[in-house]
Design a protein that fits this description.
This protein is α/β, with parallel strands linked by helices. The chain has one domain (about 1-105). The protein has four helices and five strands. The protein has helices spanning about 35-45, 55-60, 80, 85-95; strands at about 1-5, 20-25, 50, 70-75, 100-105. The protein has a five-stranded parallel β-sheet with strand order 2-1-3-4-5, covered by helices on one side.
Length: about 120
């Protein structure tokens, strides 16, 4: 599958998407496009999935009849996304044209601090 990351999607997700072609909106020269324009451009270029952090996408864009699927992350900070990367990979692998999948990541425990190496 061809997967497009929008501007705020954490780039460290990329290596976990083995077997998929991953590009960013910036790499495509689409970093200034709004959601609707981005979907049109991505579809026209043959992308199968848009991975975004824009939770409003569901309400702003009608995906009925679209050839592209949208997967929305609940957060964009890599340290809080990393423990749940499996959920993202599964959602992308299961995406079908015209579908919308929201990934609600479990909340971080209060007072949690990212580990700083070993």
């Amino acid at each position: 599958m061809r997967v497009l990351f929008d501007q705020a999607t954490p780039l460290p997700i990329r290596p976990y998407l083995k077997g998929h072609e991953v590009r960013t909106a910036a790499q495509q020269g689409w970093d200034r496009l709004k959601n609707g324009e981005l979907l049109v451009a991505a579809e026209a270029d043959g992308f199968d999935v848009l991975l975004t952090t824009d939770k409003n996408m569901r309400y702003q864009q009608n995906l009925t009849g679209r050839k592209i699927a949208v997967v929305v992350l609940g957060r964009q900070q890599w340290p809080s996304v990393r423990p749940h990367v499996r959920l993202i990979v599964e959602a992308i692998n299961a995406a079908v044209p015209g579908s919308y999948t929201g990934i609600d990541l479990p909340p971080e425990p209060t007072g949690a601090h990212p580990e700083h190496g070993s």
